[in-house]
Amino acid sequence: MSNEFRKLLKSQPGVGILIIDIDGLVLFCNKQAKQIDYGDNFNPVGKTIEEIEAPDCFGDASGSQCG
Fold first, then answer.
1. Structure pTM?
2. CA atoms 10, 52, 24, 65: torsion sign
3. Which of 15, 19, 16 is nearest to 2 (CA)?
4. Which terminus of the chain, N or C, has fewer Cβ atoms within 10 Å?
5. 19: domain range?
């Protein structure tokens, strides 16, 4: 992780950040994002976003999505 990115994270302590790759794999989740979205006891890193969130929220052939 670049020094600039680390400085940004430290300067915004209340911001939840979740970074995923192009395939939907969670690469990074800071403490705030864990607390806001998942609770302290769940670590989404290494899982795909589809595994974490409801699969039907990512749309289907009809284009429906959760709102």
1. 0.63
2. negative
3. 19
4. C
5. 3-50
